């Protein structure tokens, strides 16, 4: 299995922004060069295991949270992410999101079931 470095970068950027820190700060906290953080967030570089661990520790997230797009067994992580996304929704927003997801799921299953 090939790692999805672009997806990892998107997650690093999202967690960094959620934490309210700059690339410079993340670089300092994770013992990286600031330019390396930029490359990582754009998916333009491969990460070593120590780099992934240092970034996860700096962002106070699990390594799984950064790698979940590349993991086959990541259902729990995605369910947790969905739960977090929905946690501050109003009843009206939940109703719309539920209807949208239901339609998306039906469409995905119908398309996946079609012969290529």
| pLDDT < 50 stretches | none
Gap between N and C termini: 23 Å
- Oligomer description: single chain
Question: Could you describe the largest sheet, including whether it forms a barrel?
Answer: none
Tell me the series of helices and strands, N- to C-terminal: HHHHHHH
- The number of strands is 0
SS class: mainly alpha
- Total of helices: 7
Arithmetic mean pLDDT: 89
**Silhouette:** globular
Describe the structure.
There is one protein chain. This protein is mainly α and 116 residues long. 71% of the residues lie in helices and 0% in strands. The chain is built from seven helices and no strands. The chain has helices spanning 5-19, 23-30, 34-41, 49-59, 63-67, 75-86, 91-113. Helix 2 crosses helix 3 and helix 2 crosses helix 4 (49-59). The chain starts with a helix and ends with a helix. 16% of the residues are buried. The model has no long low-confidence stretch (mean pLDDT 89).
Short characterization:
71% of the residues lie in helices and 0% in strands. Helix 2 crosses helix 3.
């Amino acid at each position: 299995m090939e790692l999805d470095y672009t997806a990892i970068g998107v997650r690093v950027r999202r967690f960094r922004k959620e934490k309210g820190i700059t690339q410079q700060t993340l670089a300092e906290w994770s013992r990286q060069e600031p330019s390396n953080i930029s490359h990582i967030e754009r998916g333009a570089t491969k990460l070593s295991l120590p780099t992934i661990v240092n970034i996860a520790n700096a962002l106070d997230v699990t390594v799984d949270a950064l790698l979940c797009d590349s993991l086959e067994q990541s259902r729990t992580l995605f369910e947790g992410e969905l739960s977090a996304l929905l946690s501050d929704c109003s009843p009206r927003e939940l109703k719309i999101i539920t209807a949208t997801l239901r339609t998306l799921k039906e469409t995905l299953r119908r398309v996946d079931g079609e012969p290529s």
